[in-house]
Amino acid sequence: MTMAIVVQKYGGSSVGNPDKIKAIARRIVATREAGDDVVVVLSAMGDTTDDLIELAHEFTERPDERELDVLLSTGEIVSSTCLAIALRAMGQCAISLNGGQAGIQTDGCHSRAKIISVIPERVLRELENGNIVVVAGFQGIAEDMDVTTLGRGGSDTTAVALAISLGASICHIYTDVNGVYTADPRLITTARKLDEIDYDEMLELATYGARVLHSRAVEIGKCYDMPILVASSFSDARGTLIHGGIKMELRNKVRGIAHDMDVAKVTVRSVPDQPGIACAIFEPLADHGISVDTIVQNISTEGITDLTFTVSRNDLDRAVEIVGPICQSIGAKGHVSSLGLGKVSIVGTGMQNTPGYAARMFKALSDAGVNIELISTSEIRITCIIREEKVKEAVDALHRAFSLGEIDCDN
Ligand code: ADP
Ligand code: ASP
Ligand code: MG
User: Hey, whose CA ends up nearest to atom 10 of ligand 1?
Assistant: First the structure.
């Protein structure tokens, strides 16, 4: 009988020190002894990635992207080699592989590379040799053999991609909370753990700030129908299963709330309201890999309008550099930018075709004294951009307004 392949990913706080790595090693051995082939994907230990970014910034405000990727990739190499050493010290057969060795092939976009394909042969060979295979998450290799990283939180995506290419039946993501909650449990103490959630809802939550899962991990999970179980590294509590087959009408319409402090706003002032202007602004931003989130164009007066959009804070400087010269060429009066913003989103598949959710969201925010600066929506999400310092109050108010602390509330 062939053994099943189990893919387990452990996040940074779960491998934060040698004792935690030893504890994880014991869990992995238990899985192995139950008879499965085990592939482990690891994040860097604790705050290592932040520390490495800080280190690079000791030398310049804008570290070279290629060098930075190699530097950051070392964080996951430290944790994965240490785990392999710990497993071997426990008498297990184990081997660590970096992203390239594990066949994670990416495009060449440093700091935000996308996985193009996974060549699983080496991992499969090591499993056949009887090894527990420990893969360094968050990294891959581009066609020119340069090391790339997948963006913050990207080890989740490594794990789901490997699970798919190895033919695993599920991908386990172990973290420092018991699963996916109705809101960030570190912010909202009454947040409730969900037993299951569908890909679309999880994708919106993750994209709009619920960092418990990397959004691209959910995206490829959905594409290949790979169930993802998010659970605790430290306990055996039942986690949250992310999958595609949830009965829609049996559950509450608003499923969860996401928040995100990573918001910066740019307003291009007094632009001529004519065809081609939005394209002239947004095409160069896209060409530079800057992802624009909310876009609002005001009603024009006398053929002149303002255009506002949001980007992540890290991209603000580059966005402003790109937009500056464009302002001149399109005859805009100038541009202003601001930090200090955040966003809150309510998410739920059941909201589509049910009117009234936006109004209820705005009322809850207004009752809490929160001013809304911008609004964006999808079929299953409503997002409000607000002041950063109001985010906690806003999430709290929305969590109560939609009774998310209650089981099976009909909100
Ligand atoms: P890891 O290092 O394991 O990848 P992360 O820090 O990336 O862990 O993600 C886990 C964190 O995500 C939790 O500690 C929690 O604060 C945060 N989080 C945000 N939104 C949610 C949510 N809806 N459910 C659970 N956790 C959430
Ligand atoms: N170590 C990387 C980060 O901190 C990747 C990850 O943890 O998933 O973003
Ligand atoms: Mg993470």
Answer: 212
